[in-house]
UniProtKB/TrEMBL annotation:
Keywords: Membrane, Transmembrane, Transmembrane helix. GO terms for cellular component: membrane. It is found in: Membrane. Belongs to the ROH1 family. The keyword Nucleotide-binding does not apply. InterPro entries: ROH1-like. Its main location: membrane. The keyword Coiled coil does not apply. This is Protein BPS1, chloroplastic-like.
C-alpha cells in the first residue's frame, strides 16, 4: 500500500523519536499527559507479565501465547487511544496514514508466515499420532509402521518452511528502523506517535523472537535499544535481555529446537526409536510403556500448545486487519464527504 516514491523506505519509516519528545512549541495538557501515562503504564505491566518465573518457560507455547495476547491487546489499545484523543482520521497527517498502512501490511505478512509454520507443525503432529497408534500393539509389523511414522516426523520437522525463510526479510526491515514521524504543533499527534512507538517496540521484539524460534536461527533475534526516557524502558530491557540470552544459550548448545514442547517430543522420540527398531534388545515391557507414555503426553501438550498459539496468531491477524479496514473505510468516507462539499459549492456557484 505504500506509494511508489516510498519503495526504499524502511519498515517503520519514521523520524527521530527524540524530536517528538523534545519538539518546541507544543505542550501536553494535563488531560493528554494522563491519557499517555495510563497507556504506557498498561504497556509496562504487559512487559512485566512476559518475564517468566523460570527460564524453562521461555519459548514454551504458553509463553508465546501470552506474548501474542500482549500484542493483540496493545494494538487494540491504540484504536481506543485514538478515540480518547478525539483524533479523527481526517485530521491525521498524510505520513501517519502511510506509516500505518506500511506497518499493517507487513504485520499481516508476518502473521501469515507464522500461521503457515504452526500449520506445518500440526501436520507433523499427525505423524506422531500414527506412531502412537501403532505402538499400542506389540507386534513387529506395527513397530515397523511406527518407525516409518517417526522417520516421517523427523524429516518433516527438520525441513525448512519457505514462508518463514522469506519472513526474515520482513523482520530485518522491522528491526531496521523504529524512529517516529515528525509531528508539528499537534499535541494529540505527539501522544499518538509516542504510544505507537511503545507498541512497535513490543511488536518488533515479539516477532523477532518468534522468527528466531521458527527459523531455528538467531539471525532474526533483535537486541533493540530503547531510551531511558520512556517509563516502560527498564521493564522492556529486562525482558529483552533475559529472553534473548536464553535463546542464544539454547542455540549454542546445539539443541534440535528451542521450542519447549517440540524438544520434549524429540527427546522421547530419540529414546524410543532404537527400542522399536530392535537396536536395543531385552527391553522390559514396563520401560517401553513408560517411554511410550512420555511420548503420548508430550504429543498431547504439543497439540494443545499449537491450538492455543494458532488462535492467538489468528486473533492478532484479525486485530491488524480490522484496524486497517477501519482506517481505509474512514479515508473513503472522508473523501466522499469532501467531494460532496465541493459538489454543493459548485452547484451554489452555478445558481449564482
Amino acid at each position: 500500500m505504500s506509494r511508489p516514491h516510498d519503495a526504499h523506505r524502511s519498515f517503520f519509516p519514521f523520524g527521530n523519536p527524540f524530536k517528538m519528545i523534545s519538539s518546541k512549541g507544543t505542550k501536553f495538557s494535563p488531560q493528554l499527559l494522563e491519557i499517555l501515562h495510563a497507556f504506557e503504564a498498561t504497556l509496562e505491566e504487559r512487559l512485566k507479565k512476559l518475564v517468566p518465573e523460570s527460564k524453562d518457560e521461555i519459548l514454551s507455547f504458553s509463553w508465546m501465547t501470552l506474548a501474542m495476547q500482549a500484542l493483540c491487546e496493545s494494538h487494540s489499545d491504540i484504536k481506543t487511544l485514538i478515540t480518547e484523543l478525539e483524533l479523527p482520521v481526517h485530521d491525521w497527517d498524510e505520513k501517519w496514514i502511510d506509516v500505518y498502512l506500511d506497518i499493517s501490511v507487513k504485520l499481516l505478512d508476518i502473521c501469515i508466515a507464522f500461521c503457515s509454520e504452526l500449520s506445518r507443525l500440526n501436520q507433523g503432529h499427525l505423524l506422531l499420532q500414527c506412531a502412537l497408534h501403532n505402538l499400542e500393539s506389540s507386534s513387529s509389523d506395527q513397530f515397523v509402521r511406527a518407525c516409518s511414522s517417526l522417520d516421517g516426523w523427523n524429516q518433516h520437522i527438520g525441513s525448512k518452511n519457505p514462508r518463514i525463510e522469506k519472513c526474515s526479510c520482513i523482520l530485518d526491515n522491522l528491526v531496521g528502523s523504529l524512529d517516529l514521524p515528525k509531528v508539528k504543533k499537534s499535541a494529540k499527534g505527539k501522544v499518538l506517535m509516542q504510544a505507537i512507538y511503545g507498541v512497535k517496540v513490543l511488536t518488533v521484539f515479539v516477532c523477532s523472537v518468534f522468527g528466531a524460534a521458527f527459523s531455528g536461527s538467531t539471525k532474526n533475534l533483535s537486541d533493540l535499544d530503547v531510551a531511558d526516557i520512556y517509563s516502560w524502558a527498564p521493564s522492556f530491557k529486562s525482558l529483552r535481555d533475559l529472553v534473548n540470552e536464553e535463546i542464544r544459550v539454547r542455540f549454542s548448545s546445539g539443541r534440535f529446537t528451542v521450542l519447549k514442547e517440540l524438544e520434549a517430543v524429540d527427546s522421547s522420540v530419540k529414546e524410543l526409536y532404537p527400542i522399536i527398531q530392535g537396536v536395543v534388545d531385552n527391553v522390559e515391557t514396563g520401560i517401553l510403556l513408560k517411554i511410550v507414555g512420555e511420548l503420548r503426553r508430550a504429543t498431547e501438550q504439543l497439540s494443545q500448545g499449537l491450538d492455543l498459539l494458532t488462535k492467538e496468531v489468528d486473533s492478532f491477524f484479525h486485530v491488524v486487519l480490522t484496524g486497517r479496514d477501519a482506517l481505509l473505510s474512514n479515508l473513503r468516507s472522508g473523501a466522499a464527504g469532501s467531494d460532496l462539499i465541493r459538489g454543493s459549492n459548485g452547484d451554489a456557484q452555478a445558481v449564482n
